[in-house]
Design a protein that fits this description.
The chain is an alpha/beta fold and about 350 residues long. It has twelve helices and eleven strands. A six-stranded antiparallel sheet has the order 1-5-2-3-4-6. The chain has a five-stranded parallel sheet with strand order 8-7-9-10-11, with helices on both faces. It is elongated, with a radius of gyration of 26 Å.
Amino acid sequence: MASYRSSQRLNPLSLLAQLSSRQANGCLQVSSGSVVWSIYLEQGKLIYASDSVDPFERLDRHLRRLSRQIPTLVSAVRVQIRLIFESDLESKSSHNPDYQAICWLLNQQYLNSSQAATLIEELAEEVIESLLGVKEGTYQLIDQDQVEALPKFCRLELRTLVERCYEQLRRKRSSETTSVTVALYSKASEENGTQEKIDIHQKKIQKNHHIYADKNRTNYAKKQLNNLSKTTYNIACIDDSPTVLNAINSFLDDKSFSVVMINDPVRALMQVVRIKPDLILLDVEMPNLDGYELCSLLRKHPLFKTTPIIMVTGNTGFLDRAKAKLVRASGYLTKPFNQSELLKMVFKHLS
């Protein structure tokens, strides 16, 4: 089967059918725009499938669903996976780090072989379904060395899987078409009676636009002044409460600080890795993940071995402070706190 390195019209359904019937070996890579799909095959059977659109977000979503049946698959484990393997994806230091993450889950006995096979099949369905929607791009079948090196947990019938995905995609498109038709009909029937409301709404928008324009000019001036600062510290605030995040943001509203607010430690972890903050303010009590656990995981990452991490909590007991020391937190800030107390703590550790 020929490989096409220059963009052309593609029929993924036909392409996958050929690979299945010819019992192909290797990794099929399909590129369209900025997205790359990787389909690993052994004798026409699917071993694994992934794409470049945030594979760890997809993996985390499926692991969250699995955690309902597997109690040990807690948030801290999913955070640890991203800390260990997601950086490999950005640096491209290894192939298929999301598959390696699944292998790690087996080695650590968070999953058994049967659960891993089910997980791989669910991930493959999502990836194949997105691939079937591609109309134009390039593809190539890479030699089987990459596939031979992979531990094998399942060998899925490619033709059966593709047919199932195609049927699901067809149903979704049919449902979307029906929804659009109904929406257009409803819109057309309402237009005659809502013109006056639209005019009033547009006037409000124009008025608000002038107000926002003035605010934007003020904010722009502030930013320009902030740029004159010799030193700007990046502060990451991790807390599930928007009220607390907004309070910290307003307290640190100074040209010396650039504040990044994060309300989901599991999904936003790589955001912390990317921005490489000078200091982290970390809430202790969050519904999805204990702050002490997250602090301990961050300390295991080479980027955060010496980064100041301040635990923010309403607990003032000796046991809580002892926990903070055990996970090597740099400081302990008790709620409620005022601007002076926060700044004192921040500058103490930044200096």
